[in-house]
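Researcher: I'm preparing a figure for a lab meeting and need a structural model of a single chain. I don't have an experimental structure, so a prediction will have to do for now. The sequence is pasted below. Please return the structure as tokens so I can convert it later.
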Amino acid sequence: MGRAKIPRKSTNIDMTAMCDVAFLLLSFFILATKQKPPEAVAVQTPSSTQSTAAKDPSESILITLNAEGKCYLMLGEKTKRLEIVQDLNTTRSLGLSEAEMVKLSKMQVIGMPLGMIKGVLGLNQAVPAEKLEGIPIKDSANNEMMDWMRSVSNAYKGTNQRELEDNILLKGDMEALYPQFKNIKVALKKNDIYKFRIVTNGEAAPLGSELYKNNKSGKKAE
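Model: Understood. Here is the structure written out token by token.
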């Protein structure tokens, strides 16, 4: 007796629910993802095979040197920026009011000579970084980064010096001249800050090099 033939039926899978979930997840990640803001001062940093994970940018004291030799200072939101500004106002007799000091401490980019601070603060609109003259670092006689770093040291006096040094970042354009970079180092050294982090573009170690072998084996370079 022949086997009974079972009629074939097409399989119909309803993908509506799965599509709804996929689009909900996609919408969530798009809305929840924090976009990286554009750099306030654009510089082309050199590359390096040595890299260390950067700490929270909001805790960083960033010194930036662009290709033209202009120097800027950026104080993170979690730094003692108001204390730094208050100390600078006292030590350099800037004559800033309390409101002006608060406004200066909240500036995204500080890049003007001390004598121009009050005038810049009096403007109705923020001056773009590229329009600022930069903090003078010409030579030892005109290196106002020393004053800023002195106020940084005073504001952090009594705290862990190692933590302060870990939070000081120096970001220089690869076209910047070394004497300008050296003057920033002098400003740090004059205030007993001997260590800082240099911001670079990370790159892989050359294949077969000693550093490549050390990285592969997990050994730290001496």
